[in-house]
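Reopening this one. Same input as before:
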Amino acid sequence: MTKFTAVIPARYASTRFPGKPLIDIAGKTMIQRVYEQVLKAGIDAVYVATDHQAIAEHVNHFGGRFLMTSETHQSGTDRCNECASLLKLDNNDVMINIQGDEPFIKPSQISLLCGLFEESATEIGTLIKKVATTNELQQPTIPKVVLNKHGEAIYFSRSVIPYPAKKSVEDLLASGIYYKHIGIYAYRIHILKQIAALSPSLLEQTESLEQLRWIENGYAIKTALTNEETIAIDTPDDLTKALHFLHQNS
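Same output, byte for byte:
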């Protein structure tokens, strides 16, 4: 039986928002809120993966589990790969990489992602959501994704894709052709080991999107469609939006 382990990478250092995992959001830190949301999904195990002692001590204080990982990792995928080794997970088990800056992630989204692995052929899974507005579509901070007929990602971009060559953006938006990427991943352990060993690719470096490295090297990324919105906190300004979201949904 496939075992699912969730890892929440949490770095203290951040160019735009230092100490982000420990910021207070209405009485709880961001990392505690993420951890508690993931626990609600009922998966086999949940860990915070960090390279900073203050984060580890805080996780321990609220009763969570953590793994100390290297300070040199360039991505959450690399940190997850180290966790897979530390935990000695079986090759066919699945690791879920939960973004540490999404304190309102829904347990249903995690369950939806896990469901992709009912198919034994699934190597990597992620979530997508239909783009709702032209403003959202044109934001370079929101990666867009194009799919094939099997629900696999063909390409991710910060630009508008597919390009509206013959119809207006508004018409295409109404047709439901545009999707955005929700940055949560799951990988079978043997695939995680392989992709963590890949060198950065040209497409990845061009778009600054790590998942393009996997596509460029021939790995299939299966997607599941969610209707749930997520609120990522990447800057201090995002914190204001998050507090407003919490107030509206409490």
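So the earlier flakiness isn't reproducible anymore. For the record, Residues 236-248 form the longest helix (13 residues).
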